[in-house]
Specification:
With about 280 residues, the protein is mostly helical. It contains 13 helices and two strands; from the N terminus they run αββαααααααααααα. Helices cover about 75% and strands about 5% of the residues. A two-stranded antiparallel ribbon has the order 1-2. It is found in: Cell membrane.
């Protein structure tokens, strides 16, 4: 028994050491940095203070950025869910050959770098891009649409980037739903729409919650796509954290923003897990 414990400890020790070295230690250093004072022109001071957190949470500029970030994450999550649920159903009910091709098409964008995909959307959505020129050539618009450097452009880019994650998490959840449950509802004269919303969607809720958590967290922490498609004026928390560190050189404020974003993310994950646990208990009861 003792040798087994030592063997288990030996297997866990390398992973634990890597976690402590490359995750916990930098996080601790950043936490200490967020508690330092900062003076413009002088740099980081030696005094300890909570002023960075109070400044962020009491400043309308930062509050607007936080609300914009949360709204962006919500819109992207809803968009991927609305687009991903029918696609996941199609994959589940298609023939094996069609399933394979569709899954490959869903996964294929993940093989391309996110910077390249964002550049591709810039080519499509820019004022002189493919979308505007095509619409103008057909006479559908008289001038270029504002498809970039705003919420719309960022939502389009992030939805395309994170849609595969939602689909890949919805497919297993839908596979766990017994096929005869829907067939029984249809046999009892329920319409397909009613069977979908009263049976399929509730039974797939664990996958919906998991996919929504993942997409939401990835969306509110995204940096590259909001910077490229939103431009320098459309700020979210990730881009503002980058600016605080790299442009303003205010590392304490950037660290405080990073910890606030982390706290928001952990709080949302905790709340979603509580919701999923309560739902699971309700099904078991």
């Amino acid at each position: 028994m003792t040798s087994s414990r030592w063997l288990g400890a030996g297997l866990v020790l390398p992973v634990t050491a890597l976690l402590l070295l490359f995750f916990l230690a930098p996080t601790l250093l950043m936490g200490l940095m967020s508690l330092r004072n900062y003076t413009a022109g002088s740099g980081i001071g030696a005094d300890w203070t909570l002023g960075n957190y109070f400044s962020v949470l009491s400043d309308g500029f930062y509050i607007e950025i936080m609300l914009r970030t949360l709204f962006l994450g919500l819109v992207v999550t809803l968009a991927t869910l609305v687009l991903g649920f029918p696609l996941a159903l199609f994959i589940l009910r298609a023939r094996p050959a069609v399933q394979t091709v569709t899954i490959l098409l869903v996964i294929f964008p993940l093989l391309c770098n996110i910077v390249v995909r964002s550049f591709g959307w810039m080519v499509l959505l820019s004022p002189n891009g493919v979308v505007n020129e095509t619409l103008e050539s057909f006479g559908l618009i008289s001038g270029p649409l504002d498809l970039m450097y705003n919420l719309l452009g960022v939502v389009i880019g992030l939805t395309q980037i994170y849609l595969p994650f939602m689909v890949l998490l919805l497919v297993p959840a839908l596979q766990n739903i017994p096929a005869d449950v829907e067939a029984a509802a249809l046999g009892l004269k329920a319409s397909r729409g009613r069977a979908f919303f009263t049976i399929i969607v509730p039974l797939a809720l664990p996958g919906i919650i998991t996919g929504s958590i993942l997409v939401f967290v990835l969306s509110i922490s995204a940096l590259v796509t909001p910077r490229m498609l939103g431009g320098p004026t459309y700020k979210v928390m990730a881009t503002q954290i980058y600016d605080e560190f790299m442009t303003n050189l205010n590392w304490p404020a950037g660290a405080a923003l990073a910890f606030i974003l982390t706290a928001i993310t952990l709080g949302l994950i905790w709340g979603a897990n509580r919701l999923a646990a309560r739902y699971t208990k309700g099904l078991q009861a």
